[in-house]
Each structure stands twice: as C-alpha cells, then as structure tokens.
Amino acid sequence: MEIKKISPLLSVSAQILPTQMEHIAALGFRTLINNRPDREADDQPLALDLATAAARNSLVFINQPVISGKVTHRDAVDFADQLKRAQGPVLAFCRSGLRCTTLWAFNEAHHTHPDAILNFAMSIGFDLKGQREIIEQIAAEK
C-alpha cells in the first residue's frame, strides 16, 4: 500500500484491504473515505467488509462511491463536506488514488491556480491533464 500525502488532513491510496486496517490505524489515520463503488472489480473487497474491519480498528469509515472517469462537481462538493466533518487525518482510497485526487483537485481549484494543482498532482504520480478544463472552469468561478 502506497500512501500519498496531499495535505496535513488528507492522504490518498489505491484500494485497501480489510487486513490492512490495523496498519492504517497504527499510521495515525482516523477516518477512511472509500471512493470506489462495490463490484468495480472481481477482486475488490466490499464496502461492508471494509467498514467492519475499520470499526474493529477504531477507524471511521465513510462510503462515498464515485464512478471512475465520471467525477462530478456534486461528487467533489460531497467529498469536501465529508472532509470538513471528518476526524483527521483522513485516508481516501479508490482503485488507484486518481479519483480521490481528482475530488481534491476540483475543490482546491476554488483557491489555487490550476497549474499548481496539476503540477502537485503530477509530483505525487497522478496525471490530471485530462481534467484541466474542468479545473480551469472551477477556478474561473471564484
């Protein structure tokens, strides 16, 4: 499991497993946000199994599934609302971490230049160039 830190509050990763919950809690995370719908892949654990394992390790589990390649403004607003209410630090995860990073980027566009967002995302291994137009539109709405 490779965890990528976006901010003091938020980190992202690829799919996590129930067996990794103890380690995630030991790293200091308090809340998990699952941005992956159930049954996206055959080898993926169900959200219910993840939530059960999280609870056993005193982690808050938030299920906010987002369809791959179809992140919406509403998804980003919901994600921001979850972060505002969450006990940090938060680990958000999906198949690769890209959806979670996209949700962060759409919210960050309200107060950060698009180039800075895209460059930061690239520096942690996520290419958001395909989202540039949306990020620029959000930034223009400031």
- CATH level 1 class label: Alpha Beta
Helicity, as a percent range = 40-55%
Question: Order of strands across the widest beta sheet?
Answer: 1-2-5-3-4
Instruction: Look up the CATH topology.
Output: Protein-Tyrosine Phosphatase, Chain A
CATH architecture: Alpha-Beta Complex
Task: Estimate what percentage of residues fall within beta strands.
Answer: 5-15%
Fourth-tier CATH superfamily name: Protein tyrosine phosphatase superfamily
Describe, in short, the structure shown.
With 142 residues, this protein is an alpha/beta fold.
SSE topology:
Layout: E1 3-5, E2 10-13, H1 21-26, E3 31-34, H2 47-56, E4 60-63, H3 73-85, E5 90-93, H4 98-108, H5 114-123, H6 132-140
Parallel strand pairs: 2-5, 3-4, 3-5
Antiparallel strand pairs: 1-2
Protein architecture, described:
This protein is α/β, with parallel strands linked by helices. It has a single domain, classed as Protein tyrosine phosphatase superfamily (Protein-Tyrosine Phosphatase, Chain A, Alpha-Beta Complex). The protein is built from six helices and five strands; from the N terminus they run ββαβαβαβααα. A five-stranded mixed beta sheet has the order 1-2-5-3-4, sandwiched between helices. It is globular, with a radius of gyration of 15 Å. The N and C termini lie far apart (36 Å). The relative contact order is 0.19.
